[in-house]
Amino acid sequence: MHEFREWPKTKRLFRDIVVTEKIDGTNSAIHLTTVADWEAELIRSIPGDGSLHVVEVDGVKWAVSAQSRRRIITPGKTTDNYGFAGWVYDNAEALVRLLGEGLHFGEWWGRGIQRGYGLNERRFSLFNTERHGCVDASVGSVHVRPVPKTYEGVFSEEAITNELTNLRHHGSVAAPGFPNPEGICVYHSQSRNVYKVTLDNNDAGKWEAAA
Predict the structure, then answer these.
(1) pLDDT tens figures, 142-159
(2) What is the DSSP letter of 51?
(3) What pTM does this model have?
(4) Going along the chain, which residue ranges are E strands?
């Protein structure tokens, strides 16, 4: 039998957007969750692949894990992704204090990863600029902060064009002086989706005429 299926509510295009620089690294995330004492003991006692790490912070136990775009990762030559999980496990207590509970997505980038950006170190740039807007700290040898926000306001093709043109002519905001940035990400507040526009000529649009 056929069932009634409502057409989804149409989102309005001209709502606030946030434009950030798209960094060419590797998509990563840190998962931090409080656990009861018995859960912590269970995690520690069950033989496994080490995908959960337990750390105690101010008397509270936390389960910590790391992931790449496609899988859970753990420290180790064949199980990690450019050393991200190793850094997370080594600095779990500091990351709990800095970020708090939740799943924290960002870009792991810098030395030896994709464009490299001329850096001798690696960085972790968080995607959620609203939640992590005040985060700016060194954790171990890694600087943790949000991706650079270059525009916030009502959706405008002109604003997006301007941000792309600025990147093309002035280089990366995340790594000043690096002349070959990747592009931008546009977060649309009403649809809650993120869209990307790159500077590699794979995105046709009026902005190309301004380049």
Answers:
(1) 999 999 999 999 999 999
(2) -
(3) 0.90
(4) 16-22, 26-35, 53-57, 60-68, 72-73, 102-110, 122-126, 137-139, 142-146, 149-154, 183-188, 193-198
